[in-house]
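It is worth pausing here to work through a concrete case rather than discussing structure prediction in the abstract. The textbook approach is simple: state the sequence, then state the predicted structure, then interpret. We follow exactly that order.
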Amino acid sequence: MAHTSDSCIISTIDNNGILVCRRGKNTLCIDLSRPSSSDVLSLTQACEPIALDVERNETICGTYLNAWKMDCSSFIPHIDMRASGLEDAVQRLREGFDVDEQIVFEPHQLNMYGAGSYYKGGKSKSSHKRMFGTLVVAFPIKHEGGLMIVRQGEKEWAFDSGSLTSSHKEPYIAYTAFCHTAEHEILPVTYGYRITITYNLLVNTPPAFSPSVFSSDITMLKAMISTLIQGRNFLPDGGSLGFGLRYKYPIQYDSSSLLISRAD
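Step two, the predicted structure:
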């Protein structure tokens, strides 16, 4: 599966939804499950303003957009991933991997988008070989617009965090998780502030394929390929057999094991 999104309740037990961050030499503690207008203002002052370089389609420091960011070195979020259901939700992205591997939720960046701000689009930027997906958590701060559009190949999904978080009386967070090779953009925010935290989804060790998750179609394909390569007329001088993949997987492999050789 390339994408999943929904909303889930934030329990106020154990300080869920609390964000601790730095503002100069001071430390702020903000409850993002029930933020006040002064909390939002304090957070904008603690973040770094960003702008969009339209020609290069990159974010740069400046004041062009009504948007801000905070790098992971400056904040500590508190969300119980298991109790909130987020841990189970992102498991859907791990089709084809060993499900016994523990998921690591690595905070990447906090983003604030005010009215008129947007993100032109791109892929998640990470050099982690253990990364298999991206999780975006949106907090219940009233806002309109700011839809995130996720694209993978010819498929497209829309994540409306404003509608998902405002459709409940109790504080709910909205989330979307997608394969880290997917492209995404954020449409202009028309009202309020869209506040999100982006997580890199990692596994403890480079994942290995588990035969137990193969579908009957994959099993049939494997049998057909096995029969094909056993034929004496198939690559009689040896060679390599390859095929394209839709997604990029963080897998370590020995390319020499993929070579087909023929004995005289």
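Step three, interpretation. Confidence is low (pLDDT under 50) at residues 256-260. Residues 216-230 form the longest helix (15 residues).
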